Fold these 2 entries.
Entry 1:
Amino acid sequence: MKIRAEVCHFLKSLNAIGLSLIVAAGAITACSQAEFTKSPDPVGGSGMTPPTPPPGGGGPGICIPGGGGTPRNGLVGRLYYLNDNQPRYQQAMQYIQHGQLVPNPLFLNHLNVPTVRFERGFVYDGGQALNRQDGQRLTSFFGMQLWSAIQLNGTNPTGNYQLAVISDDGAVFTIREGSTDSVILNNDGYNSSRLRCATRPVAFDAATKLPMRLEYFQGPPTHISLVFMWRPWPADGNWRDPLCGMQGDEFFFDYTQTPSQPTVNYNDLLSRGWRPLDPSNFVLPDGYTNPCNDD
């Protein structure tokens, strides 16, 4: 069954969300209206322990096509939402702990969602809305938990990297180094598109596959964004990019255009070496296959 996102912007792959916009090397490539495909159940894997991704089952996966990569690239996870009678939580993990679970597993090709208005929700091909159990459209107060591992591709040099995220609303990235889980980026809470920068480097060589987990939530309407970025660690050791901590609905992207366009501020980030991660930089946990890459 095909599912089409009315908003061609949100990579909103967030599975049930849609935006097949790709930002690369300073330019945003316009996308056609994205179609989501329900695919066979994934095979449960044990590639990250702990924390571990969800096992397979619960209905067909939901995915967004495009973005490149292979069936081994991408992220896998779960989608949650709040009913109207629940508290309006302001932390990503609270959505995971208290939200209603959508049984279908989530698959994303990458995390590159420029700021966009998300008001119409998700619709099936033909116009039928993708609704919550109570019949309401899912446009706000939802969260997701995603797993993957980060690796270099053939164009990325080995060395130390600085990670960053632009998100609206909250996003928390946890990485596993050896046997230790560490929150490398905490951009949690209600906020407009805000840049959060890691304060310490992460080392990558050709063999590194760094396990990661992401908790993300979208609170009140209507804007949404999720762009995961990195750059080589600055030679002077100063992690403070001038825009770290800056935020605003139109600060990094002009969402009034279709598709959203980068602003001077976003282009300044690119000029200082920042890049969104490519689909080939994400590798799924062992035992998972990304159906999105087959469409």
Entry 2:
Amino acid sequence: MSDWKPSGSGVWVREYPFRGNSINSSAIDMGTGGLMVVSPGTNVPESDFAALDRLGTVKALVAPGSYHHMGLPEWSARYPEAGLFGPTSAIAHVAGQHRALKALQPLDALQRLLSDEFVLEEVNGCKHPDLFLALTRGGAVTWFTNELISNNATYPKSFVFRTLFRLNGDHPGLNVSRVASMLIRANRRSVRTYLEGKLASVPPTRLVPCHGEVLDDPELGRKLAEILARRF
């Protein structure tokens, strides 16, 4: 039985363990034929690959930031024809971490492969920016997020990160993370301005975070705006 769980029209999510925590991989119908996988996971069983193959052809593997790359070699070996994509700073970072891996392409190259249902950008104001990906489909607007916006059920397992989260007021549940902003070297004012603009132009009703549980909520945009104003 596959661990890929439907999360809206043409979207499937799978949790995978990494250093004691759960991280999400998202398989998304590109709207032009084929699937893209955001944050490909590690140690994926063959049964899950087979289940994904029944859903469509994997054409793109996407690192949502500089620090979500450990599954790329495994997935690229499984899908050698798929392109690899990521934010600008991730291109050099991943090349240094995986020297045998083919080079990542910028997000502009991925955008050309997607239908007009998608908004795909880098979050402004960060040295190591997150991917911003929004999908309007089936009466919902889904945001796929990386480090900054999370919905964790618990604090991180790591003592260091758990302590940092508590010291910075990061908490389980829907959150805009100050710890993540430090990790990706974000200018909080710039990030807030950027995200406020996206909340106005493509207000989300569903969140598919790399960190935490999928959240469906018609009030999600308002709640994120309130958290962003309070935290950043």
